[in-house]
Every structure is written in structure tokens, then in C-alpha cells.
Specification:
The structure holds two protein chains of two kinds.
Chain A: H1 2-5, H2 8-13, E1 23-34, E2 41-52, E3 56-60, H3 67-74, E4 82-87, E5 90-91, H4 97-107, E6 108-111, H5 123-127, H6 129-133, H7 140-150, H8 165-178, E7 183-187, H9 195-212, E8 216-219, H10 223-226, E9 231-236, E10 239-245, H11 249-259
Parallel strand pairs in A: 3-8, 3-9, 6-7, 7-8
Antiparallel strand pairs in A: 1-2, 1-4, 4-5, 9-10
Chain B: H1 2-11, H2 13-50, E1 57-61, E2 76-77, H3 80-85, E3 90-96, E4 98-100, E5 102-104, E6 119-123, E7 133-138, E8 146-150, H4 151-157, E9 164-169, E10 172-184, E11 194-198, H5 200-207, E12 212-213, E13 215-220, H6 226-236, E14 241-245, H7 246-293, H8 295-303, H9 308-347, H10 361-388, H11 407-430, H12 433-464, H13 471-482, H14 484-522, E15 527-530, E16 540-541, H15 542-550, E17 554-567, E18 570-578, H16 582-585, E19 591-593, E20 602-606, H17 607-613, E21 620-625, E22 628-638, E23 647-650, H18 651-657, E24 662-663, E25 665-670, H19 672-681, E26 686-688, H20 689-732, H21 734-742, H22 747-783, H23 796-813, H24 815-823, H25 826-831
Parallel strand pairs in B: 6-11, 8-10, 18-23, 20-22
Antiparallel strand pairs in B: 1-13, 1-14, 2-12, 3-13, 4-6, 5-9, 7-10, 8-11, 9-10, 15-25, 15-26, 16-24, 17-18, 17-21, 17-25, 19-22, 20-23, 21-22
Helix pairs in contact in B: 1-9, 2-7, 2-9, 2-10, 2-20, 7-10, 7-14, 7-20, 9-10, 11-12, 11-22, 12-13, 12-14, 12-22, 13-22, 14-20, 14-22, 20-22, 20-24, 22-23, 22-24
Classes of the chains: A alpha/beta, B alpha+beta.
Chain lengths: 261, 833
């Protein structure tokens, strides 16, 4: 099933030469199990996938399908039981905690469902956080461009507690973009938002991909959110079951019904 | 609800362990101090019980003045012994002649130090029942040139039976043969005191007067009780002597020891109080944070129908359980602390008698009660806040402690601080040291109340130093500013300890400077010979001063004596006497009248003393000497009291009224070689001007060492408080730490952030503490200005070192919380609530 439904990029992920379009992140035969003996749970069961540069990919699936685990392993927050994860050409399994932290800081951006921001820092400081952690100056032109794109210019000196939920998520998006990472991972970025704020945030994410050339991988269970993506990958029981290009909300819903989630 | 409380206690073991630790340390220090004090009392009482052997009655001259051990009053006629022997019911009778003697060791050094413990001399009492000493080797002194010395002195001096030994007595040095060694009482424990025991004849010749003895000790025959015996003897002897029962004498001696030890025991208890006080801050802080972190849980309980009182009760129950368990542990640790206090006191060079630890139920109950009460009282306000949590709070997202610093706090804190300063200054004006102390306490509390107001700006300022470290330093600063109340409460505990340490440091430095300056300007001599026997219980042979006066190369000799007396109704252990050379040797400031013409019936008083008591030249002052009352005329009023005390008399007065004549100190102006040559003949140590200053410095250092040691525990408790607060803050910010790790904060940066916050808290506490301590020292010095301690000195280098140490200690306190924060699993941290 995996072999037949996997995306074209998948076949070339393991290959030596760059194929079009190139992948910012790849997993190869990724397996993740928790516990042992009778309590053994398999979260990922031999998943292989590649995430193309400059594309917006949605990972979908019912609860327990392994979609969050896949994202965490891709992002270097968790490690695989077997298989490999590559960010660009870098095999994450070969890195110690310090190098892995640097990869997260310099090459990866994050957007979480909630609690994305450090409460003691202003919006501007939160956006600049990864750069500051690396001891780098933020590129002022790029910073202004990102802030303008996300529409936060007037809120820069506010603390997270002074921002609405939607504004907070936009700051999170801006933070992810500001560092110009190779890839951004978003974990249910609109899960805590009302539909209007959610639409706003998703629109920004899509424009980041299409206008700024950013690569984004997003986990969601919301068909509407997935419809903003260029591609939707479906997981069930730790395996990739379907891969849809240019998904619409209806197509996604259809697929969900078919999986039985 | 009780089940819930217990479940909670078990679930939050770590947090409770930290709270409990503050209670354990406080109670342990309290219990340890009480045990130490009881042990000290018991050991001296056991000495008191054996000072007079098994005497049932003591016949002695009436004693109008409380005398220190070794001091002598009027003596009684030795022939009374024969009269007493004929009294029915009398069994054994022995005369006692006591005084002062020191053995010169094989190395030429004097054994024993009268400044620390008495250096007894006595006649060897033949009656075993009446002899406080017990022969352990050799024989009693069989001739006037033989002595028995105590085994400890023999060990230190390096002598044994048959050895030739030089003994210094009031009559000067003499040569003796050691006939035997003896131990005091049943245990041989004398608390550092030494003993030389002479034949009756030698004792009378060297220590007393011919035909007279200090007292006569009597045992009653079987079946005669002490009251009957006392009554029978009193009928037989003249009315000028008093007959006291053995039990009464022992009780008096116990009371006398209690009086001497009292201030020292209170001194130790003050530090135990400080430790408990600091602990209270920690307990209060921990419970406050705990309540804040559990707001949701409380609200949930309220939402499902728990009443305010039930929530309050649950929190208080938690406090009681913590208080009881921790206090119980504290009692056990307390025994170790008692050993620790003893070790500390020995380490700074004070002698203590050995005695098995006395662990009394009363002391244990007191320490336990204080522990439980302090815990519950400290937890009460946070518990009430828990009860006030509204059910709606269960639905709110974050449960972080309220951080607003109210205007009301500025008012109440400002008022309390101002009141403290006012009381302190009023105390200074009135010269009431108790008021100064009260003002200091109020000021400390005011500063603690105000601390949250200044915490935020202070953290910002201190944080500037950390900014060089980049983002971690900045985040640390923000975190410290985030909840000023928490930062303030944590640092206040440290503030108290540091304030006291700063106070004592500045105070000591100022006294050192003052003394150095005074020595420079007021003392015109070159040398000091100091017996150390400040209470007159020993001293220097008057032959020494006489020899110095005639020695070539010696210009001027001022001998100084001291005795216990009651001056105008007030007991003093040291009424000093000088000879007419005094104003040449010392600058006493402006003098009204003539201090060189006091005579045997005059007294000189200081300006302050004269003003306080309303005395003027020509007035009569009633003075009670150990030998009886005398009326003295005020003949001079002098300005500067620091060398001579608030009043002094002429040596002529002592010559006329007091029996044993010993000099306490001898001040000399003369050639170094000449002075030392003479002093060597008397085996006494000579201090030149530098040595004099060093000796005073040494005494100050000894006091500093003791106080630092005792305050260290308060500081340790406060540092545990810092560690505890930081650990709880880390716990509270788990998710935030997970986020920081996720977006690329390195473990080392996390650690630096956490440690930075602790450094800010510690430096804030240390800085406010230092400021308060400096103010205390300044105020105290103002109060003591009349005694000449007026050179306020800031030991800047020492204070700077303390600030650095505080910062490092703060960072050290955060090592474990920082490590835990750095090791957090990113995903688990992100999922934390």
C-alpha cells in the first residue's frame, strides 16, 4: 500500500541524485515504538516520505495514527526506533543533543498549537528569539518584511498576554519565518483558534510558501486547514495510506471517511 | 478532605521536602542550642556541686558583694576551727584558703588563662569529705615547698610528681616540688580552670594572711541535718561571721554560674531565633508558590462543592503534617547541632567543660512546638488565599501567582520602615540599646514588606551585569522581574542573614579602627602587661609593678587593679583602681578636679556617668566593697571613659580595704629591653603597642568567628530557600522551557538562565542586607560613641567579597534546579500543563 500510494518524491528520496523538486526533509523506513512486551505500541510502522522544498504539506490522520510522532521525529524533538530522518542532507540520528539543538535553532522553524511564545518577551523579541539564541543579529530588512506580511507592525512591543489567540499564532508564524529556516513544522497551528483567526493564520502560512518560498509541514485533523496545503499525506495506524495533491476540503473529507477515522 | 491532603503531600514530595528542610534546620538549631545550653548549665552545676566537697556548713565572713570565683572578701580567724570542733553534731572541720596561682610550664609559658576560666589556688584539705580534689597520683603536699597540681595542668605543663616547678602566686614566683596530681570532683572536669594546691602553711603565707582563713568547711555527724548544724555552729561563733548550709552554698554557686552563663546562653538563642525567623520566610514562600500553582486544583474543588473552610483546612492540615514531621526530624538533627555548636565554640578558642548531652523533655517540647507553630503560622496567609480562590479560576488557562504590587504595600512597607528608623533613632537619642534593637527588628520587617516594590527595578539593575551573557541573562532578568513578590520573599530570607553579617563585620571593623586611633592618640606608654583576669579573680603580683618602677630604663609604671563592687546600688564586676600616674599614662580628655588626688576615700567619675546619676564634685557615693561599705567623695570628673570605665578609684583605697592585692594590668613607658627583662622574671607576657592592638584585634576576631559560624546556618537556610523557589519556578515554567528548547535554546543556555535568576535574587538579598546591616552598624556605633567607638569604618574589600560570595552562592543554590531544567525532555515539557 505504501509503495503504491507514496508520492513520486518518495521513490527518489533514497536515490543519490537531486530530483525536481528537491526535498527539505525526508524519512526513510521510519519506525517508532513505545514500551515493551505486551504494552508495546507501534506509533510509526515503516514510514517513508519526502517533503519537497517550497511546498506546503499537510499530514492528516485520526488520533493515534502517528501523525504527531512523525512530525516530532522529523523536527528532531523525538528519535526513531529505526529508520532515518534527514533535514537536507543531514541525518538527525548522527547528532548529539547539542548539534540537534543547533539544527532546530538554525534550520527548523516551529509553530505549536498553543503556548508558542515566551511570556516575558515582547512580540518582537519572540520573533527574534531563535536568532538571539544563536547570538546572531536579525536581518532587519527581512524582519520588517515578515512582520509586515503577518500584519503585526503595531503589536511588536506587546507581551503575549496582551495579544489575542490569533495574534499570538501570527507572532509564532513570524518567528518561524524570521529565521529563514529550511523547513517549518506546524503542529495543529489553528487547533486553538476560532475559524476566522484560523483562516488568517493559514492564509499567512500559504503565502509564506507561495510568496516567500518557505517549506512548511503541518499536522492537522481539520479538512479545511488541509485544503490550504499543496499536498495532504494521510496516516493510519502508523502507515501512510493516501497522498493527495492540491487537496480540497471535500476531497480530504472523502478520504477521511474512506479511512474510517 | 484529609485523604486528599495526604495524597497531595505524597504527590508533591519534592516540594514538601524543600519546605520541610527549612523547618528541620530551624528546629534543629533551636533544639541544638537548647540542648547545648542545658548541657552547659548541667556541667557547671556539677562543678558547683563539688566545689565545697561534701560540706554541710560553711563558716565565712559575711559577703556583701557577689564575688567571682577566686575573689576574696573579708577573712575569718583560723582559731574558730577549735571552737567549731566542740560544737555538738560536728564531724569534720577544715579550713580553706583560696586564691590565685599559675604553673609555669616546662616551656616557660604560663598554664591556664584567667581571661577564660579561673586559675585556682587552695590549701590541700586533709579531710577527704571536704576536699573538692581527689588525689590520683603521688602524695599530698607534705611540706610548704610541695604542691599538688591538677592532672590536666600537669599534662599541659609537662610535669609529674617529683618535678621542680615554678608557681606564680600573688606573692610572686616561687619554686616548688610536685608531690602529687589531683582531679577535681568526681569527673576531673573543671571547664578549663586550673588548680594548684599548697600545704596549709604555704597557702596562708602565699594567698592569705597569718592567722586568718577564707572559710571553714564542716560536715555534720550522721543524723544531723544541715539546718540543725548551721544553727548549732552559729550559736558558737561570733556574729561577725556567717554560717551557711552546704546546700545553700551550692545553690548560690549554681546561681552564680547561671548568672555568668546567662548572657551567653541568650546570645546563642538569639541565633536560633534568627534561623527560625529566616525559616519562616522560606516556609511562607513555599506555601505561597504551592497555592499559586494549585489554584486550578483549588478552584476545581470549590467548583464541585468544597467550602472555603474545607480548602483552608486542607491547606492548614498540610502545614501541620509538614510542621510535625519536619520538627520531629529537626529534634533528632538538633543533637548533632549541639555537638556542632560545641565544636564551633572550641574552634574559636573558648574552653567548655565536657559533659554528657542533656536532652530535656522541656527543651524538646519547646523546639518541637516552635517548629510546628512557625510552620502553621507561616502557611496561614497562603492557606487563606487558597480558600479565597473562586471556582471560576478552574476554567482559566494559566494559574500563575498574582504579581501586582499594590500601592497599599508601598504605604504599609514605607510606614513600617520609617517607624523602624524612628524607633531606632529615638533609642539612640535616649541611649536605650533595647529600643535600638526593637527599631532594627521593625526596620527589617519593613524592608521585607517593601522588598517586592523595589524587586522589579532592582532586578533590572542587577540584571545589567548578566546581559553580557546575551539572551540567557536577559531572560533571567525578566524571570526575576516577573513575580516581584516571589523574588522579594526569597531574597528577604537572605537579606536578614546578610544584614546581620554585614552589621557585625562593619561594627567590628569600626571598633578596630576606633581602638587603633585611641591607642595612637591617648596611650602614652610603650607596653602593657595584662593578666586577663578582668573580674579580679587572678592577676599580677604587685611585686611586678614595684620591680618595674625601680628598673633602669623604665620611665613610668601605672598599675591597674579591679574588684567586684556595688556602686550606688549597682553591681559591677570591675571597679577599677589606678595610681596617680594615670593621667600621665592616658589622655582622659578634659578633667574637672584632680584625678591624682582621690586618696583612699575619693572616686573619679566620667562626664556621662556623672550626668546620668546627677553627681557633681563633692557629692558622696555609696560603694559596697567585698569587705564592707564605704562612702566615697567625687573628687574628679573626666571626659573619656574608654580606658578607665565609668568610674575609678585610687589604689590607696584597695590598699586600705581589700585583702589580696593583685594587679589586673600594668601599663609601662620604658625601654623595651628593660621592660621585658623585668617581666621575664615574673613569667608574664609583655605586649608592646602593636601587640596591644593585635590582642584586641584577636578578641574581635574570636567574636567574629563565633558570630559568623552561628549566622552561617541562617544563610544556609536562606540559600535553600533560593534553591527551593527556583526549583518551583522551573516546575511552573516547564512548558516555557520546553518551547525554548524546541526553538533552539541549548542546555547550557537554559542552565545559565536559571542560574542567572538565582544570582539576581541572591545579589538583591545580599545588597539590601548589606545596606540594612551598614545602617545598623552606624546606628549602634552612634549609641556607643561615648565609649569612644566613633570611627565608622566600611571594610569595602570585605563587603565586596561578601557580595561576590552571595552571587556565587546564589548560582550554586540553583545548580540542581538548573540541571533539572536543562535535562527536561522537550516533548514532555511541551505537553506539561
Amino acid at each position: 500500500m505504501i509503495e503504491t500510494i507514496a508520492s513520486p518524491a518518495d521513490h527518489h528520496a533514497a536515490g543519490p541524485a537531486g530530483w525536481e523538486p528537491p526535498a527539505s526533509a525526508r524519512v526513510i523506513d521510519a519506525t517508532k515504538t513505545y514500551g515493551s512486551g505486551d504494552n508495546r505500541v507501534t506509533a510509526l510502522d515503516g514510514v517513508s516520505a519526502a517533503f519537497a522544498t517550497g511546498r506546503f504539506t499537510a499530514i492528516m490522520g485520526p488520533s493515534g495514527s502517528g501523525k504527531s510522532t512523525l512530525l516530532h521525529c522529523l523536527a528532531g524533538l523525538d528519535s526513531l526506533t529505526s529508520g532515518s530522518v534527514f533535514i537536507g542532507d543531514l541525518d538527525l540520528a548522527t547528532l548529539d543533543d547539542r548539534r540537534l539543538t543547533e539544527v532546530r535553532r538554525d534550520r527548523i522553524g516551529f509553530i505549536f498549537q498553543a503556548f508558542n511564545l515566551v511570556p516575558t518577551l515582547t512580540a518582537a523579541e519572540n520573533i527574534a528569539l531563535p536568532a538571539r539564541l544563536a547570538g546572531r543579529k536579525v536581518d532587519a530588512g527581512w524582519f520588517d518584511h515578515v512582520v509586515a506580511t503577518v500584519g503585526l507592525a503595531k503589536r511588536l512591543s506587546h507581551r503575549p498576554s496582551e495579544l489575542s489567540g490569533g495574534q499570538q499564532q501570527r507572532v509564532a508564524v513570524a518567528r518561524a519565518l524570521a529565521a529563514r529556516p529550511e523547513i517549518i513544522f506546524a503542529d495543529e497551528p489553528t487547533g486553538n483558534l476560532d475559524s476566522r483567526s484560523g483562516t488568517e493564520v493559514l492564509t499567512f502560512m500559504r503565502s509564506a510558501v507561495h510568496d516567500l518560498g518557505q517549506t512548511i509541514v503541518m499536522v492537522t485533523h481539520d479538512p479545511v486547514a488541509a485544503s490550504y496545503a499543496d499536498r495532504a499525506v494521510f496516516l493510519a495506524d502508523g502507515r501512510i495510506v493516501t497522498d493527495i495533491a492540491n487537496p480540497t476540503a471535500d476531497a480530504v473529507l472523502d478520504q477521511i471517511r474512506r479511512i474510517g477515522a | 478532605m484529609f485523604t486528599l491532603t495526604i495524597r497531595n503531600l505524597v504527590a508533591h514530595r519534592m516540594r514538601l521536602a524543600a519546605t520541610a528542610f527549612a523547618v528541620v534546620l530551624g528546629v534543629a538549631f533551636m533544639a541544638g542550642t537548647l540542648v547545648f545550653n542545658d548541657t552547659l548549665t548541667a556541667s557547671f552545676h556539677s562543678i558547683a556541686g563539688e566545689l565545697n566537697g561534701e560540706a554541710d556548713a560553711i563558716v565565712r565572713a559575711s559577703q556583701p558583694v557577689d564575688l567571682a570565683f577566686g575573689q576574696t572578701g573579708e577573712r575569718v580567724d583560723a582559731s574558730l576551727v577549735d571552737t567549731i570542733r566542740t560544737v555538738p553534731g560536728v564531724d569534720q572541720v577544715a579550713t580553706r584558703t583560696t586564691g590565685y596561682a599559675q604553673v609555669v610550664g616546662a616551656d616557660g609559658e604560663l598554664v591556664g588563662d584567667p581571661e577564660q576560666a579561673p586559675t585556682f589556688a587552695m590549701n590541700w584539705v586533709a579531710s577527704e569529705a571536704l576536699n573538692p580534689y581527689r588525689l590520683v597520683e603521688g602524695a599530698p603536699p607534705g611540706a610548704d615547698d610541695q604542691v599538688v597540681i591538677d592532672t590536666e595542668t600537669a599534662r599541659v605543663a609537662g610535669y609529674g610528681p617529683g618535678d621542680e616547678v615554678t608557681v606564680i602566686t600573688p606573692s610572686g614566683p616561687g619554686s616548688f616540688t610536685v608531690s602529687g596530681l589531683a582531679d577535681f570532683g568526681s569527673t576531673g572536669e573543671m571547664g578549663g580552670a586550673t588548680a594548684v594546691l599548697f600545704s596549709d602553711g604555704a597557702a596562708t603565707e602565699l594567698l592569705g594572711q597569718p592567722g586568718l582563713v577564707d572559710s571553714i568547711a564542716v560536715t555534720g555527724a550522721d543524723g544531723v541535718d544541715q539546718a540543725q548544724l548551721v544553727e548549732a555552729i552559729a550559736r558558737a561563733v561570733p556574729g561577725t561571721v556567717e554560717v551557711v548550709s552546704g546546700d545553700q552554698v551550692r545553690a548560690d554557686d549554681e546561681a552564680h554560674f547561671d548568672e555568668i552563663l546567662g548572657p551567653f546562653k541568650i546570645f546563642l538563642l538569639v541565633f536560633a531565633f534568627i534561623a527560625v525567623f529566616v525559616g519562616a520566610f522560606i516556609i511562607n514562600n513555599t506555601f505561597s508558590i504551592s497555592v499559586a500553582q494549585r489554584t486550578r486544583e483549588m478552584a476545581m474543588l470549590r467548583a464541585i462543592g468544597a467550602s472555603r473552610r474545607q480548602v483552608l483546612r486542607a491547606m492548614l492540615t498540610e502545614a501541620v503534617v509538614v510542621g510535625v514531621v519536619a520538627s520531629a526530624v529537626g529534634l533528632m538533627v538538633g543533637t548533632l547541632v549541639a555537638f556542632g555548636i560545641r565544636a564551633l565554640i572550641t574552634a574559636v578558642g573558648l574552653e567548655m567543660p565536657d559533659h554528657a548531652l542533656v536532652v530535656s523533655t522541656g527543651a524538646m517540647a519547646l523546639a518541637f512546638g516552635v517548629g510546628v507553630v512557625v510552620t502553621v503560622v507561616s502557611a496561614f496567609l497562603p492557606a487563606r488565599r487558597a480558600g479565597k480562590v473562586r471556582p471560576i479560576a478552574a476554567l482559566r488557562d494559566v494559574a500563575i501567582e498574582r504579581v501586582d504590587v499594590r500601592f497599599r504595600r508601598m504605604i504599609s512597607g514605607g510606614t513600617t520602615t520609617a517607624a523602624g528608623v524612628a524607633v531606632l533613632l529615638f533609642g539612640l537619642a535616649q541611649k536605650e540599646i533595647a529600643l535600638v534593637g526593637l527599631g532594627a527588628l521593625i526596620l527589617l520587617i519593613g524592608a521585607a514588606v517593601l522588598a517586592p516594590v523595589t524587586a522589579r527595578p532592582a532586578a533590572q539593575v542587577i540584571g545589567v551585569g548578566l546581559r553580557f551573557g546575551g539572551l540567557p541573562g536577559e531572560l533571567a532578568t525578566r524571570n526575576a522581574m516577573r513575580n516581584p513578590k516571589r523574588t522579594a520573599r526569597t531574597s528577604s530570607a537572605l537579606m536578614i542573614g546578610v544584614a546581620l553579617i554585614t552589621f557585625i563585620t562593619v561594627f567590628a571593623a569600626s571598633i578596630r579602627t576606633s581602638f587603633g586611633a585611641a591607642l595612637e592618640s591617648d596611650f602614652h606608654g610603650t607596653h602593657l602587661i595584662d593578666s586577663g583576669a578582668w573580674d579580679g579573680s587572678g592577676g599580677l603580683s604587685t611585686e611586678l609593678a614595684a620591680a618595674l618602677r625601680t628598673a633602669p630604663g623604665v620611665e613610668l609604671v601605672t598599675a591597674n587593679r579591679v574588684t567586684a563592687a556595688v556602686v550606688d546600688g549597682e553591681q559591677t564586676s570591675n571597679l577599677e583602681a589606678f595610681d596617680a600616674t594615670l593621667p600621665t599614662m592616658f589622655d582622659l580628655g578634659s578633667i574637672e578636679g584632680d584625678v591624682t588626688a582621690l586618696g583612699a576615700d575619693g572616686i573619679a567619675v566620667s562626664e556621662d556617668e556623672a550626668a546620668d546619676r546627677g553627681w557633681a564634685i563633692g557629692d558622696t557615693v555609696a560603694v559596697l566593697l567585698p569587705t564592707g561599705p564605704v562612702d566615697l567623695t567625687v573628687r574628679a570628673v573626666y571626659e573619656d571613659a574608654k580606658w578607665v570605665g565609668p568610674e575609678f578609684v585610687d589604689t590607696a583605697l584597695y590598699d586600705r580595704y581589700l585583702p589580696a592585692q593583685l594587679d589586673y594590668r600594668v601599663y609601662v613607658d620604658g625601654d623595651d629591653q628593660a621592660v621585658r627583662a623585668t617581666a621575664d622574671r615574673f613569667h608574664v607576657e609583655v605586649l608592646d603597642r602593636q601587640g596591644f592592638a593585635d590582642a584586641v584585634s584577636g578578641d574581635i576576631d574570636q567574636m567574629l568567628g563565633l558570630v559568623y559560624g552561628l549566622l552561617a546556618l541562617a544563610v544556609i537556610i536562606a540559600l535553600f530557600g533560593v534553591a527551593n523557589t527556583i526549583a518551583l519556578s522551573v516546575h511552573e515554567r516547564t512548558r516555557e522551557l520546553g518551547l525554548l528548547r524546541a526553538v533552539g535554546m541549548a542546555r547550557s543556555q537554559i542552565r545559565r538562565t536559571i542560574r542567572g535568576e538565582a544570582v539576581i535574587v541572591a545579589v538583591y538579598g545580599a545588597t539590601t542586607g548589606a545596606l540594612v546591616g551598614i545602617f545598623f552598624a552606624w546606628a549602634t556605633l552612634r549609641a556607643l560613641a561615648e565609649y569612644g567607638f566613633d570611627d565608622f569604618t566600611l571594610p569595602v574589600a570585605k563587603l565586596a567579597v561578601m557580595a561576590v560570595v552571595a552571587g556565587v552562592a546564589g548560582a550554586g543554590a540553583a545548580v540542581f534546579p538548573a540541571r533539572r531544567a536543562a535535562r527536561l525532555d522537550v516533548l514532555e515539557a511541551l505537553a506539561a500543563t
